[in-house]
Structure formats: C-alpha cells, structure tokens
Design goal:
Strand order of the largest sheet: 1-2-3
Largest sheet: 3 strands, antiparallel
Number of helices: 6
Order of helices and strands: HHHHEEEEEHEH
Distance between the termini: 48 Å
Structural class: alpha+beta
Bound molecules: zinc ion
Strand content: 15-25%
Shape: rod-shaped
Amino acid sequence: MNIKKVYEWFIDKWLASLLTATIVFILNYYKDLPETEKKVFFHFTSIKTFLNSGIAVWQVALVLVFIVILHFLQIKKLKKEKSQPPKKKIPDDAPFLKYKSDKFGQERWSWDYEWSQYDEKYSLLHIAPNCPKCNTKMEYDAFGGVGTCFKCRIDGKQNTFKVNQLPNDIGKEIERRVHSNEFIDKVI
Ligand SMILES: [Zn+2]
C-alpha cells in the first residue's frame, strides 16, 4: 500500500470534506438557534454546548489521532527512502565484459572490470601482463618494469620477464579498442 498516496488522498479529499461538513454543520446549528442564543453563540458557553450536543470530543480526538498516525507513517517512509537511495541495476550483459585479455605489440595482457556505483560505469582493474612462456597472468612490478610468473616459479623455470609495455598505455588502448568496437572480434 502506498502510504503517501493514501495520505495525499486523505488530506485532499477526506479532510477537506470533513472541514466543509463541519462548517455546514455549525452554520445549520447556528441558523436553528433561538435568536437569544445566536447572540452568545461565539461565547465560550455556546461552544461548550455545541461540543456536547454536536460532535463528541472523543470523535474529534479519534480523527486527530488518525491524522497523527498517518503523518508519522509518512515521515517514517520518507526517512526510509532517504536512507536507501534506489539502486541502479548494474548492466552485467555488456559485450565488452567478456573482453579481458588481448595482445598489445608482442605482449599479452589481462585485466578485470569493476563497477563503480558512484560513477555508474565500469572501470579497468588488475591490468597485468601474461607470462610469455605459459600465459599465466603475472605480478607486475612497475619500478623494475618486470613481470613475475608464480606458475613458472613453482615449476622451477625462469619466472621473471622484462615487460616493455606500460599499464597506463594498455589501459588507454583497452578503452580505445572497446569504444571503437575492435574488441568484438577478440571475444570468444
Ligand atoms: Zn609462466
């Protein structure tokens, strides 16, 4: 149930009708009063008489309690909406998400994608060269410009290789290949 709509309907229609009905009721009540009482109608005593004879206090109180409850529910709902902004659905079927490895010059590099909720787009993550001997993704050391292959290290083979490309260039080239749709032929 949409509390806000009920609340708006209540304020717009029901409460307006109630106020109109009350005013009409008071006017009718006033019209039917004897002339002597009309003069003192807006005095405290006449209002007291009106409340006793017209609308019982508990009925007024009930309506007020109802309004307060609706108001409370409305505030609670607004707070909930504020604390939980509507989450945008992450597009997980974009074709480029399968494009995670490619050759750049003589070297093969691999990478991942990360969804940024803030920017509402994907960015590149873990860009690293693959081992030239066994094609395993290597650990890249930017200072030495070398990649280390854990698999070749386990196998007791040469495991450190000179890397010529720069991750920054690779990142830019991946974006260029994605935007130009060149990647499509390379996705299996
Ligand atoms: Zn290797």
